[in-house]
């Protein structure tokens, strides 16, 4: 584990190697390091000593400590990243390792910049997660034109979101239903459903009813979607598929259950049922929309 002075030195090294601090530019003084990082003067001095030993900085009379000649040159130098670069780097980490592997320090390391430089693009982790969620919506546009009919449109919206959650399993955890984030690319999804529920079978529904119908669809998809990431991480941790895990677990479950007290559960545990997240999504969506059909005065579909 790196010490405090090594961590600060690493941040300044990254700024030099990325080209953010060019040859001849002044580097943070000991007083500035003390002020920005809350460390002792001795620690700040060790930071600059380490950079001098690496040949990255030099002391120039009348100027102070600056980036040494050639320190930031060569193939390692990179242009400063954009907001899009930061978001894409964060999504790459989250897609591969889940939200648990995501940190501002990790993103900065992958981009080869100091951690504090990220805050020029995003105010913090919450804003970064919101931008990531917006990027997920941007990658999953609704078809144009949308199908006619409220049910067909609800199915398209739900399946589009479900596909996005499968590609980015962390996104369902980020999405909030009670404190919705500002995600401009998500607005078309909301608008599509609000419009779909506008007038059905000659009935006009107020905006309060239509918003509840709309958000309930999103909530259902999110509710199933939050299980995608844990399922993927469990496969990585155990090396077993869900089917293999069930094959190993069910015999013990059967032995632990008294069939006289739980006859229906015993039958279910003894039956080969194809129960997956996809099947739960499709079955649940169909039954949800069947309920909508009754509420809207239409006939529900056959199971």
UniProtKB/TrEMBL annotation:
Keyword field: DNA-binding, Transcription, Transcription regulation
DNA-binding region: 103-122
Domain HTH gntR-type span(s) in chain numbering: 2-70
Any Pfam family: TetR_N
InterPro entries assigned to the protein according to its UniProt record, in alphabetical order: Bact_HTH_transcr_reg (IPR050679), Homeodomain-like_sf (IPR009057), HTH_TetR (IPR001647), Repressor_TetR_C (IPR004111), Tet_transcr_reg_TetR-rel_C_sf (IPR036271), Tscrpt_reg_HTH_GntR (IPR000524), WH-like_DNA-bd_sf (IPR036388), WH_DNA-bd_sf (IPR036390)
Annotated transmembrane regions: none
Residues annotated as domain HTH tetR-type: 80-140
Protein name per Swiss-Prot or TrEMBL: GntR family transcriptional regulator
């Amino acid at each position: 584990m790196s010490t405090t002075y090594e961590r600060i030195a690493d941040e300044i090294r990254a700024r030099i190697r990325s080209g953010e601090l060019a040859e001849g530019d002044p580097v943070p003084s000991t007083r500035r390091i003390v002020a920005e990082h809350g460390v002792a003067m001795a620690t700040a001095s060790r930071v600059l000593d380490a950079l001098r030993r690496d040949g990255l900085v030099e002391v120039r009379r009348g100027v102070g400590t600056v980036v040494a000649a050639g320190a930031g040159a060569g193939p390692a130098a990179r242009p400063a990243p954009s907001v899009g670069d930061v978001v894409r780097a964060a999504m790459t980490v989250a897609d591969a390792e889940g939200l648990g592997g995501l940190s501002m320090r990790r993103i900065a390391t992958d981009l080869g910049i100091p951690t504090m430089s990220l805050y020029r693009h995003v105010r913090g982790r919450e804003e970064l997660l919101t931008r990531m969620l917006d990027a997920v919506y941007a990658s999953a546009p609704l078809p144009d034109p949308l199908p006619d009919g409220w049910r067909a449109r609800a199915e398209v919206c739900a399946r589009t979101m479900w596909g996005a959650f499968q590609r980015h399993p962390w996104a369902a955890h980020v999405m909030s239903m009670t404190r919705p984030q500002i995600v401009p690319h998500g607005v078309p999804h909301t608008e599509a459903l609000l419009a779909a529920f506008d007038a059905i079978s000659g009935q006009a529904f107020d905006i309060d009813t239509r918003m509840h119908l709309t958000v309930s669809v999103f909530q259902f998809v999110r509710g199933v979607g939050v299980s995608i990431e844990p399922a993927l991480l469990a496969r990585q941790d155990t090396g077993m598929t869900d089917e293999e895990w069930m094959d190993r677990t069910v015999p013990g479950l059967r032995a632990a259950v008294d069939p006289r007290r739980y006859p229906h559960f015993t039958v279910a545990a003894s039956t080969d049922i194809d129960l997956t997240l996809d099947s739960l999504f499709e079955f649940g969506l169909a039954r949800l929309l069947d309920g909508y059909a009754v509420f809207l005065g239409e006939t529900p579909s056959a199971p």
